[in-house]
Structures are given as structure tokens and as C-alpha cells.
Design goal:
SH3 type barrels, alpha+beta, five-stranded antiparallel sheet, elongated, 6 helices, 5 strands
């Protein structure tokens, strides 16, 4: 097995905060992981953001140290501060992405029509939190509250609570369930409804 050069190790150590940010981001958002090259580029960009922040933290620590000394700023301190800053940055970026904060503000000023969500499917379920009627491919329907929904329309599952299922050609409700797990591949159409609509059927 070939040995890893010290230059590669130093580069990985330098990019570690950026990789940590991307790890947190893709772990907490519905976005799919891009290729390794794209993640490396993203890690480089995030590292360029983390390093100045750590430098500011170092400067602040030095200022505080003029009043009360807590210890020396060492290489371990720099690494620890970089890791904490990367975690905080990852949580911050994931939060504004999941809540569509930046594109949402820009849409209000007609700057863009895009969202921060990975696709229209996710945006719809994120923005319309209400009861749904799932029309399945076997012609049955399931009414309930979607607690969990797939990130895209091609793979994943729904978790529907307070679920009522009806089969075609029947007069009444077939079954009431506390929750149902439904493969998105079995869903032909999604209706957004209200509790009153179900009661009137």
C-alpha cells in the first residue's frame, strides 16, 4: 500500500473543516450528495469561509486574554475551534436551506422564482402542511396526515397517520389505521385536502 505524502496529509487537515460542513449539510438536508469532485470543491469553499472565522476567534481570544488568561492558543486550539466553527456553519447553512430563507426572501422581491429545496415535489409538501388523499395505482385511496414524505417523486415512502383507506366500488370506508407506510411508486396522484372534505364523503 503506497504511503500518503505529508503534503496530502496537510491538505486533508486543511480541508477537514470544509468536509465537516458538507457532511453536516448533506446529513440534515434532502439534497443528494454530489460527486466526490464536487464535494471537494464545496469543502474548499467552506474551508475558505471557516478559516477567516477561526482567525477572528483567535483574535477575540487574544483580546479576552488581555483581561483574563485561560491558556495558550495552540495548534490543538486552532483545530478544536475549526471543528466547532465548521459544525456551527453546517447547522446554519442546513437550517436556512431547509426553511428556504434566502430564496424565500428573494422571491418576495421578484429576484428569483427558485427555492432552496431539491425539487418541486419536496417544495410542495414542505409548503402545504395539510391532509392528503393518495390515489394509488390499484384504484384505492388513502386519506390522512403525511408525517413523512419522500424527497422526490421516484423513490421513498409516505408515512400517513390517521389513515383511512377506500377501495374502488365500495360505499363505505374499508379500514382505519393509526398509520400506513406507502411506497411512492404505488401513488398515481396526490390531492391536498382538509378534514372536512373527508367527513363529507
Amino acid at each position: 500500500m503506497p504511503e500518503i505524502s505529508t503534503e496530502v496529509v496537510a491538505l486533508l487537515q486543511y480541508l477537514a473543516p470544509g468536509f465537516l460542513v458538507t457532511w453536516v449539510y448533506f446529513g440534515l438536508t434532502p439534497h443528494e450528495k454530489p460527486s466526490q469532485f464536487e464535494r471537494t470543491v464545496q469543502a474548499l469553499i467552506y474551508t475558505a469561509v471557516v478559516q477567516p472565522l477561526v482567525a477572528l476567534e483567535n483574535l477575540l481570544a487574544m483580546r479576552v486574554g488581555e483581561w483574563h488568561a485561560f491558556g495558550y492558543w495552540t495548534a490543538n486550539s486552532h483545530m478544536f475551534a475549526g471543528a466547532l466553527t465548521a459544525l456551527g456553519l453546517g447547522l446554519f447553512v442546513a437550517t436556512i436551506t431547509n426553511h428556504d430563507l434566502v430564496p424565500g426572501a428573494l422571491r418576495k422581491h421578484n429576484v428569483t422564482t427558485r427555492t432552496s429545496h431539491p425539487c418541486e415535489w419536496f417544495t410542495i409538501f414542505s409548503d402545504y402542511s395539510q391532509f392528503v388523499v393518495l390515489h394509488l395505482r390499484d384504484k384505492s385511496t388513502v386519506y390522512g396526515w403525511p408525517v413523512i414524505w419522500p424527497s422526490n417523486a421516484e423513490k421513498g415512502h409516505f408515512l400517513v397517520t390517521d389513515a383511512t383507506r377506500k377501495l374502488p366500488g365500495t360505499a363505505g370506508n374499508i379500514s382505519h389505521s393509526y398509520a400506513m407506510v406507502i411506497n411512492v411508486a404505488d401513488v398515481a396522484l396526490v390531492e391536498f385536502a382538509t378534514p372536512k372534505e373527508n367527513d363529507s364523503e
